[in-house]
Amino acid sequence: MPPAIMAEGLVKKYGHVTALDGMDLSVPEGTVFGLLGPNGAGKTTAVRILTTLLKPDAGRATVAGFDVVGDARRLRSHIGASGQYAAVDDHLTGAENLEMVGRLYHLGTKQSKERARELLERFDLVEAGSRPVQGYSGGMRRRLDLAGALVANPPVLFLDEPTTGLDPRARVGLWDVISELVAGGTTLLLTTQYMEEADRLADEIAVVDHGRVIARGTADELKDQVGGDRIELTVTNEADLETIRRALAPLAVGDTQTDATALQVTVPVAHGAASLTDALGMLAAERVTVRDVGLRRPTLDDVFLTLTGHEATARENATNAKEHSR
Amino acid sequence: MNALQTAIADGVTITRRNALKIKRAPDQLGGAVILPIVFVLLFAYVFGSMIEMPGVSYREYMVPGVFVVAIVSGAQITGYTLTLDLRKGIFDRFRTLPMAPSAVLIGQTLCDVLMNLTSIVVMALVGLLVGWRIHTTPYEAVMGFLLLLFFSYAFSWVTATVALALRTPEVFNNVATVVSMPLMFLSNVFVDSSRLPGPLKAVAEWNPVSTIVQAARTLFGNTSPALPVSDAWPLRHAVEVSLLWSALILAVFVPLATRLYKKAVSR
Ligand SMILES: Nc1ncnc2c1ncn2[C@@H]1O[C@H](COP(=O)(O)OP(=O)(O)O)[C@@H](O)[C@H]1O
Ligand SMILES: [Mg+2]
């Protein structure tokens, strides 16, 4: 079966900035693909090209078998997209927003209304559905926007940073909604800055940096490359940093990071909580004062540090400037 | 559905969306109704008692001018709304839908015609209260109103073009004010343009706003044989030239706005 989403050598330049620098993607039908990368990596640009909003300078891409440039018109009936900024009309009610989208998909008045009702129910917005969107919380807007992308039951779905800016509870709520959705067989490409989100939702992850895919694989494969969990220790004396690094070396499954300003040591370990217990035992023998100690999952920063040797810092400030002008 | 049916259906959907927005946030409608009422009353009572016109009362003379002022300001809502929508992601949503791309601008401009119709009706009623009268046949009067609406529709496309080129609401508002002020005051809206001094007179007589106002006055019969006849060509054939202006504006600005829309949303 041909992939639901296929991209070859996509290039997009904005003046001097190369937003996409030869990006290749291949997403099998019915799977969830996570595009993971820091701000400015080129995620939105890739999604905009795949959803026909933008033409690539070079390369080609097909979605659901349609060329994103040559067949853009026909492609649009086969995709649903929810952008980085919830595309909902503030003055319209939730129901009106969805009905409008249904009409623009040419579903007809009756079916548009019916579909709107179904979706409001599914996204837990029945009560809010008759109120103008103006008064919605961030999570509700996001859910409504997602519902808008689903009006025509598209086989391929694009979600650009669906949970950025949401509080943790709303984020988990949206994850549940998305998981349920893809259980029905929809192909989904989602972008995110959070390793945890990609881990939770995606079958396969591509890590992007500077407009290029720098690593790909399942969450487990990537985490193996990155090393498992991190033990993070904070000390009071800078001299202790080196002592701890040496003492815990047997546990480390990758490069141990020491940060003299934050007085922190970060050790990648293989066995999570068991490693933490071991570490505490080993440190008991040393004469160091540990102020704080904790275990955390690898973050995007860890992935980047490992894969690129540099931290996942946002590139340029053009991204921010653009976001403000919206 | 064929392409034309799609475009019409989508245009109606977008018009309905914009109408709902006005219903929910009636501040714009307020602006389009209240401001013209204030204009009619202000000019009728303040200037109406000072300015003398040979053969016609100033109140009657001025009302068609106020109509045009109101629609020139009303058309700016098109531009302003577009700049606001550009800020949000809503056009991205529209563009990933299999809808006719022209529907966004058609829906926006049509909705403004509805709003302008409302404000003209209100102004006409207030005008009748303060002594404005139609002295022509019903046919000519209807023609007068249609001509005003046609011009307002065309002018909406001008403001849409400007808005899509400027793209920020604040900048658009400033530019719209700076441009529309001279357009309205360097004309025959409030004064008889033939009595203006040299260069001002030429500008005022060739100003399309003057032509529309002159056409409306002719079609409503708010002129008088005692008024000096201008020898400027657009004012002597005001009705025809008004239609020509409106058609010309549409021919230039519809494609221009459509191009700019595509450019503005595919960044
Ligand atoms: N419209 C634009 N004009 C100029 N530069 C842009 C524009 N859109 C994106 N960029 C630049 O392209 C790069 C990639 O941006 P983007 O695709 O938005 O990244 P992400 O979504 O991963 O944060 C960034 O450096 C950004 O500044
Ligand atoms: Mg982005």
TrEMBL record, chain A:
It is a peripheral membrane protein. GO terms for biological process: daunorubicin transport; doxorubicin transport; response to antibiotic. It comes from the Bacteria. It is found in: Cell membrane. Residues 5-235 form the ABC transporter domain. SMART domains: AAA (SM00382). GO terms for cellular component: plasma membrane. Its main location: membrane. Keywords: Antibiotic resistance, ATP-binding, Cell membrane, Membrane, Nucleotide-binding, Translocase, Transport. The keyword Membrane applies. The keyword ATP-binding applies. InterPro entries: AAA+_ATPase, ABC_transporter-like_ATP-bd, ABC_transporter-like_CS, ABC_transporter_ATP-binding, DrrA, DrrA1/2-like_C, P-loop_NTPase. GO terms for molecular function: ATP binding; ATP hydrolysis activity. It holds the Pfam family DrrA1-3_C. Belongs to the ABC transporter superfamily. Drug exporter-1 (DrugE1) (TC 3.A.1.105) family. This is Daunorubicin resistance protein DrrA family ABC transporter ATP-binding protein.
Automatic annotation (TrEMBL), chain B:
The chain crosses the membrane at residues 29-49, 61-82, 103-130, 142-164, 171-191, 243-261. InterPro entries: ABC2_TM (IPR013525), ABC2_TM_bact-type (IPR047817), ABC_2_transport (IPR000412), Nod_factor_ABC_transporter (IPR051784). It is a multi-pass membrane protein. Keywords: Antibiotic resistance, Cell membrane, Membrane, Transmembrane, Transmembrane helix, Transport. It comes from the Bacteria. Residues 27-264 form the ABC transmembrane type-2 domain. GO terms for biological process: response to antibiotic. One of its GO terms (molecular function) is ABC-type transporter activity. It is found in: Cell membrane; Membrane. The keyword Cell cycle does not apply. Its main location: membrane. One of its GO terms (cellular component) is ATP-binding cassette (ABC) transporter complex. Belongs to the ABC-2 integral membrane protein family. This is Transport permease protein.
